[in-house]
Amino acid sequence: MPTVKNWQLGREMSYPYDARYPSRQFAFVFNINRCIACQSCTMACKSTWTFSKGQEHMWWANVETKPYGGYPKWWDVRILEQLEEANPGGQVWTSKAGAGRFGPYGRFDGQTIFEAASRTLSPDSARVLGYLPSDEEWNAPNIYEDNPVGKRGVRNRLDETGETLPVHNTWFFYLARICNHCSYPACLAACPRKAIYKRPEDGIVLLDQAECRGYRKCVEACPYKKSMYRGNTRTSEKCVACYPRVEGTDPETAGEPMETVCMAACIGQIRMQGLVKVAEDGTWAEDRQHPLYFLVHVAKVALPLYPQFGTQPNGYYIPPRWVPRPYLRQMFGPGVDAAIDNYASPSRELLAVLQLFRRSNRIIYRYAIEEGPKIFEGSLHGRNIEIFNDTVIAFGQDGRELFRTTVEEPVHVRSAAHANSI
């Protein structure tokens, strides 16, 4: 099996195909701290792409309540258990998060879903460790919504001590998910028909239904369970990253590359999507003023979801501040502690970049900051802090300004004559 560089793991790994990389990669950052589980993203995707017969169970975009929720049920628990069975006691990161750009999360010396497959699966055509969810596991996309974790070892009882940061004793959080359009897709690796491919211009992973024969190998292989089988057509389907919008062919933006419908519908302002430059070795090429590059590689507040699976997902998450750290390290790797510290006490630049989230439905290619006056000085978490009302400016693909916004949000006071009007 060929080897490829996986910078999220800090090492090379086995993968069924030689590495091929797009010129740019579709990627996104979700800020979990802001998600309110309104399901606007879920319903935007459902009403756009999966409203037809045979798609009733398909939720390409969904929001699940962790730790108990999941769609399909137990998707992450089951694959983590399979990996542990394949490599007992060895699924660990052997070094801590470092300062380097190419191994920022340390080194994972456990088994990925590709490497573990050779130990556990037969026949030889089974290239990826995975499983097929049962019909019952696809039945309830909102199961266990808002169900919190209580006192450890005590059932049906919440903790009695109240909740304070940095960690709550009674907790849950919302995890918004779409296809990660991975650099090393498990669905692509597993398909015997080679019906799945990454687009060279933007890295979006698509499924050619004319070539698909419904073997469901992609459903079995995807550890995030974002490839789904449609029984009445006997083919699989998946998130297409709203590629007409990303291409700029949606008439709404007159040729400007545009965010997906799930991104544009987000009222919690948790999402930012973009296209990042990719270097020859598959890492993100240095692009200091790109907001996604800044969040992932400079501020280091955004982390990949289950990087230990080995797919090098291009979806990143700012972890929730109130959740016990061991749970988050299992989900996002050893960069969690630094990410939460950096987010809880943001730098001046990070505070400005966070204002870019959901200010426009256009894709941002570059940002600039104009410094403003100091508006606050005090202490937070034992540190002295200063907040400046800087202006952050977003630029599009052609270098033209898309919008500008300030750190301090403007206050609008309705006049007394219309105080109670809508």
Number of helices: 11
Helix content range = 10-25%
Distance between the termini: 63 Å
The shape, in one word, is: globular
Strand order of the largest sheet: 10-3-12-11
Question: Per CATH, what is the topology of the largest domain?
Answer: Alpha-Beta Plaits
Computed CA radius of gyration, to the nearest angstrom: 22 Å
Q: What features would you highlight for this structure?
A:
422 residues; alpha+beta; Alpha-Beta Plaits; 3-stranded antiparallel sheet; 11 helices; globular
Please sum up the structure shown:
The chain is an alpha+beta fold. It has helices at residues 40-49, 75-86, 113-120, 186-190, 217-221, 243-247, 261-264, 291-298, 325-332, 336-344, 348-353; strands spanning 3-6, 11-14, 24-31, 62-66, 173-177, 196-198, 205-207, 227-230, 235-238, 271-277, 303-304, 315-318, 366-370, 374-380, 383-388, 391-395, 401-406. The chain has 2 domains: 3-348, Alpha-Beta Plaits (2-Layer Sandwich); 355-406, no CATH class.
